[in-house]
Design a protein that fits this description.
Elements (H helix, E strand, L loop, with lengths): L3 E5 L6 E3 L12 E2 L5 E2 L13 H4 L16 H18 L4 H12 L1 E5 L5 E5 L9 H12 L3 H14 L10
Antiparallel strand pairs: 1-2, 3-4, 5-6
Helix pairs in contact: 2-3, 2-5, 3-4
């Protein structure tokens, strides 16, 4: 099995392999001993299948970069909504990148008293160093797209079935 990095593919959750090194000239293919052209050899190691518990059977979901946090399935829904909103707005990765980056750093979802959702920092050893760091990241990455963030969080409330679309207005 090739060595793996600590990073995971965003769509499937598979570990990303470290690229294998190939001696120069071999990546282009060449003649074998009988004058036949051999196929080019890949410079990327074969990607192993992710365990079922990690990637799940449903490949239409984005992988949560922090499955160690308690709201993993809900955050996966948020990432899917962000991807859809990016596609609609023709801003590839803007919203998804912001939510994904905040999650990697240790952001969780919290239900508000009215039944909606808000982002909150998880402060600790493998999360945000402090709430001030979280606030600075929010100001830098989420404030410029504030309306899209609020709209996506509202859509999450509808998607989870806690409110119907006509009640969410």
């Amino acid at each position: 099995m090739p060595p793996m990095t600590r990073y995971r593919r965003i769509l499937t959750g598979e570990p990303v392999p470290v690229a294998a090194s190939v001696p120069p000239g071999e990546e282009q293919g060449g003649k074998d001993g009988q004058g036949e052209v051999s196929p080019a050899k890949s410079t990327v190691a074969a990607t192993p299948q992710a365990p079922r518990s990690q990637a799940g059977n449903n490949h239409s979901r984005l992988a949560d970069p922090r499955p160690d946090l308690p709201d993993s399935e809900l955050y996966q829904d948020l990432l899917m909504l962000a991807l859809a909103n990016d596609a609609k707005a023709k801003t590839p990765g803007k919203l998804l990148g912001a939510f994904h980056g905040m999650r990697c750093a240790g952001t969780a979802l919290e239900q508000t008293p009215k039944g909606g959702y808000k982002l909150r920092p998880v402060v600790g050893e493998e999360a945000w160093p402090s709430e001030a760091d979280y606030r600075a990241a929010c100001k830098k990455y989420l404030d410029p797209i504030r309306q899209e963030v609020l709209s996506t969080l509202k859509s999450l409330r509808i998607r989870t079935g806690e409110v119907t679309p006509w009640q969410a207005r």
